[in-house]
Design goal:
The chain has 462 residues and is α/β, with parallel strands linked by helices. It has 13 helices and 15 strands. The structure holds zinc ion (ZN). Zinc ion (ZN) binds next to α7 and α8. Zinc ion is lined by residues 313, 317, 330, 333.
């Protein structure tokens, strides 16, 4: 009994109580890094983080004590409401970390900092860097970035060889404002570069401790606040992405019937219910039911083809589910985009295709030597060879070979099936083409065999 109680006491004492409730803002500019990796690198053991996807002006920060901001993208300025949210949070004792730099085209974060007496000039610092105040003696790791110009309200925390600050802190009301060059923090989407973690964590924790949070109260993410039904689709966006939403929906409607045509089927049941407009030019993602589209991908709306390809790609993922394609799950999605672009008469579609096949031929001139399934097969080989295979299948078994494939896949794969291998895939292609395609794939150096798939019996005999 006593032992048991001791155990409970011990557990209770060792369970960490978070002292930091942080909000990583991804509403001004979305990056996978800010979507949780910053927290993993610097605050994992001490804090709980949620992301803000919605307009900053509507963000509830009552149970948060740290707001993490980036310089943002000039297409989405920090609006007056966002600035009010930031200012009120600071005056209420919250800590704001702004990671931003001077640039030829100023980042919107620069305008936010101006009202607090900081300028972000487009001036590179000079090594070495030196910690001051609470960072005295710390090792400073610095990637690329710019210096800060500050008024006397600021306390520099890191300076360059010419005593110009790259990180500084000031009081605003009861709260702390930290301004630092982006080059002091990690950036990799896999969180593998926690530079300066030794001092970043204590710096943030100490500053945030000014405002108490209630760790028992749920710390929830904030989603985009606008949603609109457009046909079968729920489009999701916030104030800053609103002006892109309509044009992207228009492209989606243009693309969809062509995707339906080239695949010969509707998206899998339950897929593509939502389309989220992401504040980025960096691409998109798909979770099947929700596709997320970078608002200014490929210089949209000035250029259209990249958006056609991206939407087709992300939507294409929802067409192949619930059985993701082996090996070429990513290339097939882009290939669907190429087919759609072609049907829309866009010359960039064939240019994209030819460019990628040429890259593969540099590695494997006749595309019959390298097994794309082997470990370490180069990405360019996998992508180019995939396109080549699909083009060949169309010329030998078309027209509409891709549609026949998708239809055969839907018909053959039973619900509850586990996995979908390249052997399975070639069996399905064989059924679609009405011909045993294993020898043909083997002639192109694919290691595929009918005896390794339960669908082998369905492969047509010669
Ligand atoms: Zn993808």
């Amino acid at each position: 009994m006593q032992l048991l109680m001791l155990g409970i006491v011990f557990l209770a004492a060792s369970a960490p109580v978070p002292t930091v409730h942080s909000v990583s803002d991804i509403s001004q500019q979305f990056t996978f890094y800010m979507d949780g990796r910053f927290h993993r690198q610097y605050l994992q053991d001490v804090g709980k983080d949620v992301r803000n996807w919605g307009s900053l002006s509507k963000l509830d920060l009552s149970n948060a004590n740290l707001l993490i901001l980036t310089g943002g993208d000039p297409r989405i300025p920090y609006d007056a409401g966002a600035c009010q949210t930031i200012d009120a949070f600071l005056h209420g004792g919250g800590t704001v970390l702004m990671m931003a730099d001077g640039a030829r085209v100023p980042q919107p974060g620069a305008a936010v900092m101006q009202r607090y007496g900081a300028e972000l000039p487009d001036i590179k610092p000079k090594r070495p860097f030196r910690g001051l105040d609470q960072l005295e003696g710390e090792e400073i790791n610095f990637r690329r970035g710019r210096v800060l110009t500050l008024n006397e309200d600021w306390t520099p925390l890191i300076v360059d060889a010419k005593e110009r600050p790259v990180l500084a802190r000031r009081q605003v009301g009861a709260g702390h404002l930290l301004l630092g060059s982006r080059g002091l923090f990690g950036q990799k989407p896999d969180a593998s570069d926690p530079i300066n973690a030794d001092w970043v964590q204590p710096l943030l924790v100490t500053a945030a401790s000014t405002k108490a949070i209630d760790p028992k109260k749920k710390h929830r993410r904030t989603w985009v606040e606008h949603r609109r039904e457009v046909g079968p689709l729920m489009v999701e966006y916030h104030d800053g992405t609103e002006r892109f939403a309509d044009a992207i929906v228009e492209v989606y409607h243009e693309v969809r019937p062509h995707l339906r045509h080239v695949t010969g089927v509707e998206p899998s049941p339950g897929m593509i219910k939502n389309m989220l407009i992401l504040p980025t030019g960096g691409g998109g993602f798909s979770s099947g039911a929700r596709i997320a589209i970078g608002a200014w991908w490929g210089k949209f709306p000035e250029s259209r083809y990249p958006m056609v390809e991206l939407i087709s790609h992300e939507a294409g993922h929802s067409w192949v589910l619930p059985y993701a394609e082996p090996l070429w799950n990513e290339p097939i999605a882009t290939y669907l985009g190429i087919l759609v672009g072609r049907r829309l008469g866009m010359p960039e579609a064939d240019e994209t295709l030819k460019r990628q096949i040429a890259k593969a031929r540099k590695l494997d001139p006749d595309l019959d030597a390298i097994n794309p399934l082997e470990d370490g097969a180069p990405r360019d080989l996998i992508w180019g060879k995939t396109y080549h295979v699909f083009e060949e299948l169309e010329s030998q078994h078309g027209p509409g070979s891709m549609a026949k494939y998708f239809q055969a896949k839907r018909a053959l794969l039973e619900p509850g099936r586990k996995g979908y291998s390249m052997d399975d895939c070639v069996a399905v292609w064989s059924v679609a083409a009405g011909e045993d395609l294993f020898p043909w794939f083997q002639s192109m150096a694919f290691d595929v065999r009918p005896e390794r798939t339960d669908l082998g019996a369905r492969v047509p005999n010669p």
